[in-house]
Amino acid sequence: MDLLNFVGVFAFAVSGGLVGVRRRFDIFGILVLALVTALGGGVVRDLLLGITPPSNLTNIPFLATAVVAGLITFRFSGSLDRVRRLILLADAAGLGAFAVAATLLAIRTGHPGVEAVLIGTITAIGGGIIRDMLAGTVPSVLTQDIYAAPALLGSLGTDLCVRFGLYNTLTLWLLVAFVFGMRVLALRFHWQAPKPRRLTRDEPDPPRPS
Questions:
Q1: What is the largest CA-CA distance in the chain?
Q2: pTM of the prediction?
């Protein structure tokens, strides 16, 4: 599971750093986004599991991995179009790695079933939400093509594999690949969750809160 966490930290740090590059942040801003994207979801996970202080904040290898990923991103970033594609791919990789790793940790700390699935999903999407809010954009999970659903299904698949004795290294990476692939396909084909229909001119606006 350590390798899985390192993959997630690195991928999400790259994703956060690339958002900073796209928003024209300086190197400090890029490193901040890399760190909070890579470690934010894990901090939320540990707080939900009652692990204090959060392990991500005391794990020097994780911190170093996030910083190195941010520096690499700063040094080798390309054109804006290329950066956007890299953000989405790195984000999809982190989504899969963290969904599976966080679900496994929840199960191992005595929170199987629905708890594990929810913790896995929240961990996977948490870093991206914090990243987007700091960058001044609406979080991807609220606006873009299907985002949370791949993480939810990956977490559910992890819990079921453990429950029925199917968990091993191969199934672990297959689940990560499934989440990654589903997210990439959602981006490619613009799969979206149902949205409310737009108001027509004849329909009144919703009432304002008093």
A1: 59
A2: 0.86
